[in-house]
Amino acid sequence: FAAGRRRLVDWFDWMLPEAWRYEHNVLHHYHTNEVADPDLVEQNVAPLADAGVPLPLRYVALGLYALTWKFTYYAPNTFQVLRGAERAKAEGRPVSVEEIANPDALRAAFDPRTADGRRFWRECLLPYGLGRFVALPALFAPLGPWAAFSVWANSVGAEALTNLHSFAVITPNHAGDDMHRFDRRVSDRAEFYVRQVLGSANFATGGDLNDFLHGFLNYQIEHHLWPDLPPRAYQRVQPKVKAVCEKHGVPYVQEPLRRRLAQLIGVAVGAKKMLRSETRSKAQRKGAGGPVADVADAAE
């Protein structure tokens, strides 16, 4: 899928498919809300949250970012993470996920003076940018300049709306003052499962239309527990997961999208802070005699 010549047929977007698979499926899912998570929102938006500019300007900047985030964040972030791993392997050294999940490297991806920058433009930005905003409108040029311009304007508008929708249903999934950040890697499978619940939030679930409009990303907790399950399976298992969490006292965060967006915005502009957690190891849990539900101690 999306390999070789099928890249722009199956995956017509700014991102490289192999870069997204590595950044999301490997690093994000197995380092959720750690420093090594390249999608740790609070870490990535720190320059905006800490900026010494008036709060209204931070809201404006966040709005512009939401309208362009596939271009300004997702494409360069996934690319630089993959290139960091490739460089480490080529040099014969272990891949340090803490090193390659570096938000400061985003700007470097756009620099055409470097080999990586030229590759990013050649493999990510130019194929999609020229195809969507040049080649497609040009097909309508025989109908006149107004036709070509209309197609271009609609393409730009559709791109902005697509970015806004994906930003709204993706970025709030792990951000908020009720979401946990973790100081180290997991020590065992039980800790891994509890972290996925403590570091993820669901939106309103249930109903095929509601779930479709959310892209099934409203089942973020279940998705992080079992990344390979199809969406329909999340509909069946979600009530069971919620019931198990309630039974053992594990916070299961589920709120409407608008409230999770408010949480995300608060973190992005510096008005809210995520919880810092020190997760107990298997030996510590055994010594304390407590249930798996006690694996996290959080302090703001």
Detailed description of the structure:
- With 300 residues, the protein is mostly helical.
- Helix content is 60%, strand content 4%.
- It contains 15 helices and 3 strands.
- The protein has helices at residues 7-10, 17-30, 41-44, 46-49, 55-90, 97-100, 106-109, 115-138, 145-170, 189-198, 208-213, 220-225, 231-248, 257-268, 282-288, and strands at residues 180-182, 275-279, 296-299.
- It has a 3-stranded mixed β-sheet.
- 33% of the residues are buried.
- The model is unreliable at 290-300 (pLDDT under 50).
Provide the descriptors you would attach to this structure in a database record.
disordered C terminus; mainly alpha; globular
Blueprint (SSEs and pairs):
Elements: H1 7-10, H2 17-30, H3 41-44, H4 46-49, H5 55-90, H6 97-100, H7 106-109, H8 115-138, H9 145-170, E1 180-182, H10 189-198, H11 208-213, H12 220-225, H13 231-248, H14 257-268, E2 275-279, H15 282-288, E3 296-299
Parallel strand pairs: 1-2
Antiparallel strand pairs: 2-3
Structure in a nutshell:
The chain contains 15 helices and three strands. It has 300 residues and is mostly helical. Mean pLDDT is 88; it is low at 290-300.
